[in-house]
């Protein structure tokens, strides 16, 4: 199916946009017919609707297969013209994809001191002796020095085990909240629509970003604070402290979380893209324990609890739906 082929190309180009051989092969596929280009355009528009805004120039590529009368003088010239136009279109497409798909990611990469990829966790020790375990797809900027202890969670999730220092509070800045501690263990996660903070032990003070009155929330072990990105409102809930950041052990424990958020957590372990085309499914509430060592099995177990189906549309795409 051409849509599935187009999705495969999309994911390959997203993962390795600067591979000349891949770009040439993609150009050949795109040039095969107008239906190939139409499938590519449809996939790009779908991703644009999801907010990734990939830039596609299929019309430019197609024009290279429709030479003007003047270009028909020589078959060799025509082949050269097609090749040149195809390579130019491929370069333009590659540049567009890099900017649209990787613009935010490139900015994060420039700012980050520590990064992880799909299915990768990493433990780093900061200058003050504090340990940070990075979940997959996480970026962290380290500003810890002799006078201040300050880090920024740029993306993903991290579990912090902070060395106590009464003279220098440890501060974690996330997009929606700032967390201040002296010495404790807690996790901070960017959910995509807010920031979630879970406290394993000790005590922390949390301040939502942009709150004018400066109100701080003091969390106790087992407390969870979720700060909404749009309104800055913080909601409190509870979890078993022993279940916090179980992804460090290859497990995922969730309590009354949205299905869309849980799918995003499994996505961190999965090399394929996971789609929820029915928006109402994302709001279903989930409580359960899942084995992350096999992301496909975890995804199937999650879907089965709601009578949903998981379809492997290609090696690079999983679709979760009610039919």
Can you give a write-up of this model?
It is a single chain. With 323 residues, the chain is an alpha+beta fold. It folds into three domains: 2-111; 112-242, Jelly Rolls (Sandwich), CATH 2.60.120; 250-323, Phage tail protein beta-alpha-beta fold (3-Layer(bab) Sandwich). It is 32% helix and 30% strand. It has helices at residues 2-15, 20-31, 34-49, 58-63, 75-111, 259-267, 295-304, and strands at 114-115, 122-125, 131-134, 139-142, 149-155, 157-161, 170-173, 177-181, 185-190, 194-201, 204-208, 217-219, 223-228, 234-238, 251-258, 273-275, 285-291, 309-314, 317-321. A hairpin with a 5-residue loop joins strand 2 (122-125) and strand 3. Helix 1 packs across helix 3 (34-49), helix 2 crosses helix 5 and helix 6 packs antiparallel against helix 7. The chain is globular, with a radius of gyration of 23 Å. It starts with a helix and ends with a strand. Residues 49-92 and 98-102 have low confidence and may be disordered.
CATH topology of the largest domain: Jelly Rolls
CA radius of gyration: 23 Å
Shape: globular
The beta-strand count equals 19
Q: Report the mean per-residue pLDDT as an integer.
A: 80
Q: How much helix, percentage-wise, in residues?
A: 25-40%
Domain FecR protein: 114-204
Keywords: Plasmid
Protein name: FecR family protein
InterPro entries: FecR, FecR_N, Ferrdict_sens_TM
């Amino acid at each position: 199916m051409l849509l599935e082929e187009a999705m495969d190309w999309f994911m390959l180009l997203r993962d390795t946009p600067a591979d000349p051989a891949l770009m040439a092969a993609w150009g050949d596929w795109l040039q095969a017919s107008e239906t190939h280009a139409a499938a590519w355009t449809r996939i790009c528009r779908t991703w644009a609707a999801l907010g990734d805004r990939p830039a596609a120039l299929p019309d430019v590529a197609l024009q290279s297969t429709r030479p003007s009368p003047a270009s028909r003088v020589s078959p060799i010239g025509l082949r050269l013209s097609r090749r040149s136009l195809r390579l130019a279109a491929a370069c333009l497409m590659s540049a567009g994809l890099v900017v649209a798909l990787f613009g935010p990611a490139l900015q994060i990469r420039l700012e980050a001191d520590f990064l992880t990829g799909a299915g990768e966790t990493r433990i780093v020790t900061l200058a003050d002796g504090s340990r940070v375990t990075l979940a997959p797809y996480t970026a962290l900027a380290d500003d810890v020095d002799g006078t201040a202890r300050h880090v920024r969670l740029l993306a993903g999730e991290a579990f912090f085990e902070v060395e106590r220092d009464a003279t220098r509070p440890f501060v974690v800045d996330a997009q929606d909240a700032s967390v201040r501690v002296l010495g404790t263990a807690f996790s901070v996660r960017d959910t995509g629509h807010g920031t979630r903070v879970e406290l394993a032990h000790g005590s922390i003070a949390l301040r939502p970003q942009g709150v004018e009155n400066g109100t701080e929330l003091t969390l106790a072990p087992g407390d969870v604070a979720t700060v909404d990105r749009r309104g800055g409102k913080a909601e409190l809930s509870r979890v078993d402290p022993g279940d916090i950041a179980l992804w460090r052990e290859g497990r995922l424990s969730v309590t009354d979380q949205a299905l869309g958020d849980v799918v995003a957590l499994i996505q961190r372990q999965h090399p394929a893209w996971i789609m929820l085309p029915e928006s109402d499914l994302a709001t279903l509430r989930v409580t359960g324990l899942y084995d992350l060592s096999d992301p496909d099995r975890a995804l199937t177990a999650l879907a089965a609890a709601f009578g949903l189906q998981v379809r492997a549309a290609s090696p690079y795409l999983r679709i979760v739906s009610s039919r």
